[in-house]
Amino acid sequence: MINLAYKQLLPGASIGIIGAGQLGKMLAQSAQKMGYRVVTFDPNPQACAFSVSHDHVCASFDDRQALLDFAGQVDVVTYEFENINGPLLAELADKAYLPQGTQLLLTAQHRIKEKEWLASIGAPVVDFRLVSDFTQLEEAVASLGLPAILKTTRLGYDGKGQMKLQSQTDLLEKRAELDELLQAECILEAFSPFDYEVSVMVARDVYGNCECFPVSQNQHEAGVLACGLAPAPIAGEMAQKAQEVAKMIAQASQLIGVLGIEFFVEGDRIVVNELAPRPHNTGHYTMEACNVSQYDQHILAITGRPLVPVKLLSPSLMVNIMGQHMPQLATTMDQFPQAVFHLYNKGQAKFQRKMGHFTILADQVEKLQNLRDESPFLKDWSQKYYSK
Ligand code: ADP
Ligand code: MG
User: Hey, where are the domains in the chain?
Assistant: First the structure.
């Protein structure tokens, strides 16, 4: 029986998506495949999901009236954009149908609230301190030790709004950059000496069913995801631990939809890095490698339909295509004729901007791991993250 707080929306109903970047685009494509009508909302007139939406609204994320009018046009509202301001989000939840609720998003918007909540439900996190000025930073460094990472509590993404502190001299030499970061409230995090970074996409529906996708092992370059390998070639018990923690978080937050959870694996310890209560870059692989994608599960969950039990059909390697890679696109397509390419059509190919991705399937994950680690082409590909 469906909980009375939720509705079941059949194909033909309309879904409003706040944010029309690539995640919004792939959500819209999944919703349309299932027969839903899609309206997207984004301040960028060239937002890439507009071209695959039945209708769209171009307005600021802070434009209260535009957001409420947009929400009034659709049967259910969801988001790919995470930084909708708190009071506006509460109003949306009050006046429109937002089955995801507000609590998890508000928690994930603030790195300290996120870590405090995770710790309160028994999910391990790195040590951290709230830091509002330089004196507090010095105190936090004295108590956590170095290396450590200073991050703004809000609005950071793709490694933006953060700085690694390697040694005491960094405090002196990087003083100007640190002061700039400290204009906003920050968190100092102990540096995790991780062996791997992994992530899990977990979905939960209105009936309380929880489905995890296989664990992805991720490599970041300069704070931005470069590639992901699934199923993660790590010890089975570590993958199982990550999925257990993911399910615990999904249940504790009464999740509706999908949630991306990033982890650090340190020996036999697993630490949650951060939460993204929406589809996630490391879950793109599910489109080709699974019987159901992260986007499909999200649409099913927010329309009050039961999730599909997840099956991995094939190991996969997903590689991001950044702005600096675009001149090599044709060569890359020749290099990997077995790959499925996704291009988002985001316009200007800026350095470090996510423009697309490709996914390669193979019968054994070791073959893909080997390709990731040994292919001269892919090595060169990641070198390009550093050099403009
Ligand atoms: P973003 O919101 O930009 O994704 P993250 O907190 O995930 O921010 O940081 C980006 C990357 O920086 C991580 O994937 C990881 O590689 C590195 N990183 C962040 N925090 C830590 C930490 N405490 N210890 C070690 N590495 C970290
Ligand atoms: Mg991250």
Answer: 14-98, 127-190, 196-385
Q: How many C-beta atoms lie closer than 10 Å to residue 337's C-beta?
A: 6
The answer to whether the CB of 358 falls within 8 A of the CB of 341 is: yes
**Tens-digit pLDDT profile for residues 92-146:** 999 999 999 999 999 999 999 999 999 999 999 999 999 999 999 999 999 999 9
Residue 53: both structure tokens together:
């939406």
Pair 225, 218: CB distance under 8 Å? yes
Atom 2, ligand 1: which residue's CA is nearest? 157
293 CB-contact burial (10 Å; exposed 0-12 / middle 13-18 / buried 19+): buried
Looking at domain 196-385, which of 3.40.50.2300, 3.30.470.20, 3.30.70.1230, 3.40.50.1820 is its CATH number?
3.30.470.20
Question: Are the beta carbons of 30 and 91 closer than 8 angstroms?
Answer: no
Distance 134 CA to ligand 1 centre (A): 21
* Residue whose pair of structure tokens reads 């077995």 in the numeric block: 338
Contact 40, 32 (CB under 8 A): no
Cα-to-centroid distance, 13 and ligand 2 (Å) = 33
Nearest CA to ligand 1 atom 12: 223
Nearest to 187 by CA among 208, 210, 156, 211: 156
pTM (global) more than 0.90: yes
Q: How far apart are CA 284 and CA 288, in angstroms?
A: 8
| Cα distance between the two ends of the chain | 56
Instruction: State which residues have CB under 5 angstroms from ligand 2, the bound ion.
Output: 262
Instruction: Indicate which ligand has the atom closest to the C-alpha of 220.
Output: 1
Residue 313: strand, helix, or coil: coil
**Residue 96, token pair as written in the block:** 């429109």
What does the pLDDT look like over 243-255, one tens digit per residue? 999 999 999 999 9
In this structure, the residues whose C-beta lies within 6 A of any atom of ligand 1 are: 126, 149, 156-159, 189, 191-192, 197, 220, 223, 262, 273-274
**Amino acid letter, residue 382:** S
* Residue appearing with tokens 């339909």: 305
Angle between helices 64-73 and 86-95 (to 10 degrees): 30
How do strand 316-322 and strand 224-230 relate by DSSP bridges?
A: antiparallel
